[in-house]
């Protein structure tokens, strides 16, 4: 009877545990890579064998619709928060916060005041608060102490650190005794050369080839470290690039007195802070000034841009049409390639590739939103997403295995509750099983006390 009892409990345990402990499979790992300014269609201009290798063995989403304004800092922060710029607070590369009375400037690396970043909580902070470890190689914002937390491993931003050095750090962090589960890697190209040359310049082929070679290096180093097949890797970018021209300049000096305003952020989306009492005069001077420039008072910015509800968005916004630049006058330098324009324009869209155990193979999808990356990352890492503007449902079709509805990231609270109940029941069953099993052993070895123990064990046998 005791033996029967043991097997019955063992069977119950075995039936219960797979659903309980499958959630404790090997710690999932993710590496998020950004090649700054890699426009979605660059891969069609050169053979790009390494990009195509990843696509063939993983997922390719042709275009990522990023967020307005299509600049570097706003979009990198969207990737790791799932929020529009007005909600995460990094509304531009150059900002003025009237409440903090502080300026944020990517160009001067004046970005280290934590309050600029603390309107949102980036995924590496959440990852670490859930007991994991993160490592960041130059990803924007990862060398700032946000909500009191820095990544477990990080590198102070220094443009001159080579790609190879950044990769080497990440591989060390993934393979160390206390490994990270989440890595972030940032590389400045092809953005820098795209600005200098313009995306339509034939020399961009060389730059794209060089970026492809960097990806090839990353893949080969991951293979050497035996990480390629076990880490989920996402390769994406913050924005595309559009061709500018000296024939497409809009000169503000022709329309408005430069003493009336401060230009907080620059072309092609110019953030204008009028001097005291000059708001209406500045706006009226500019609103119909040029057919390729749209000028909004802050409260009139279309809601589809999700770019209104933040004190760092200035009272007047001037947005150039694609390919146009807004300058004070022609003596101002301008770039042959630029981005920042309306995020519905395909020239602004970026690339998305993914490879790893979680992803389908040789799968193509037309488009996704950049805000959807965050819930996807949370799902891959098995962490709870914070409220965000993305949707996991929009991207779950790129995963190798369908995700049960109850495991969708937005339902993680339910999962945690179910997990807790499952573990508790499992633990109780193990204890009961062991108690009964020990009693059975005792019965076999000490026949004289068998009768007494059988009495105790009997109710359990009936349960
Ligand atoms: Zn960028």
TrEMBL record:
Residues 1-22 form the signal peptide. The chain crosses the membrane at residues 417-437. Keywords: Glycoprotein, Hydrolase, Membrane, Metal-binding, Signal, Transmembrane, Transmembrane helix, Zinc. GO terms for molecular function: NAD+ diphosphatase activity; zinc ion binding. It comes from the Eukaryota. It is found in: Membrane. Its cofactor is Zn(2+). Its main location: membrane. One of its GO terms (cellular component) is membrane. It is a single-pass membrane protein. InterPro entries: Alkaline_phosphatase_core_sf, Phosphodiest/P_Trfase. It holds the Pfam family Phosphodiest. CDD domains: Enpp. Belongs to the nucleotide pyrophosphatase/phosphodiesterase family. This is Ectonucleotide pyrophosphatase/phosphodiesterase family member 5. The lineage of its organism: Eukaryota, Metazoa, Chordata, Craniata, Vertebrata. The gene is ENPP5.
């Amino acid at each position: 009877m005791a033996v029967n009892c043991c097997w019955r409990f063992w069977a119950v345990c075995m039936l219960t545990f797979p659903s309980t402990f499958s959630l404790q499979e090997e710690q999932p790992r993710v590496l998020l890579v950004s090649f700054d300014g890699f426009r979605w269609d660059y891969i069609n201009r050169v053979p790009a064998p390494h990009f195509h290798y990843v696509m063939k063995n993983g997922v390719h989403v042709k275009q990522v619709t990023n967020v307005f304004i299509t600049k570097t800092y706003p979009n990198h922060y969207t990737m790791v928060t799932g929020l529009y710029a007005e909600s995460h607070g990094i509304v531009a590369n150059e900002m003025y916060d009237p409440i903090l009375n502080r300026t944020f400037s990517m160009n001067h690396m004046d970005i280290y005041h934590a309050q600029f970043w603390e309107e949102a909580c980036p995924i590496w902070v959440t990852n670490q608060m859930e007991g994991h470890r993160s490592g960041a190689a130059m990803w924007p914002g990862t060398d700032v102490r946000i909500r009191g937390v820095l990544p477990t491993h990080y590198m102070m931003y220094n443009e001159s650190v080579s790609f190879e050095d950044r990769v080497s750090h990440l591989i060390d962090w993934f393979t160390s005794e206390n490994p990270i589960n989440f890595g972030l890697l940032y590389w400045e190209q092809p953005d820098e050369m795209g600005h200098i040359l313009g995306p339509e310049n034939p020399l961009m082929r060389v730059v794209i080839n060089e970026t492809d070679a960097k990806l090839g290096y990353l893949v080969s180093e991951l293979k050497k470290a035996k990480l390629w097949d076990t880490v989920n890797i996402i390769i994406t970018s913050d924005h595309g690039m559009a061709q500018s021209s000296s024939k497409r300049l809009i000169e503000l000096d022709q329309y408005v007195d430069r003493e009336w305003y401060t230009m907080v952020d620059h072309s092609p989306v110019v953030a204008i802070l009028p001097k005291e009492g000059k708001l209406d005069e500045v706006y009226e001077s500019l609103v119909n000034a040029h057919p390729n420039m749209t000028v909004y008072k802050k409260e009139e910015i279309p809601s589809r841009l999700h770019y209104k509800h933040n004190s760092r968005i200035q009272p007047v916004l001037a947005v150039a049409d694609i390919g146009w630049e807004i300058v004070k006058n022609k003596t101002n330098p301008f770039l042959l390639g630029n981005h920042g324009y309306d995020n519905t324009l395909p020239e602004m869209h970026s690339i998305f590739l993914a490879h790893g155990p979680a992803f389908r193979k040789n799968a193509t999808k037309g488009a996704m939103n950049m805000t959807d990356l965050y819930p996807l990352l949370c799902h891959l890492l098995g962490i709870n997403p914070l409220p965000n503007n993305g949707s996991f449902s929009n991207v779950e079709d790129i995963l190798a295995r369908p995700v049960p509805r109850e495991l969708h990231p937005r339902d993680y609270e339910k999962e945690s509750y179910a997990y807790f109940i499952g573990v508790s029941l499992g633990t109780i069953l193990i204890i009961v099983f062991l108690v009964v099993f020990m009693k059975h052993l005792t019965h076999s070895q000490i026949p004289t006390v068998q009768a007494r123990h059988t009495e105790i064990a009997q109710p359990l046998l009936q349960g």
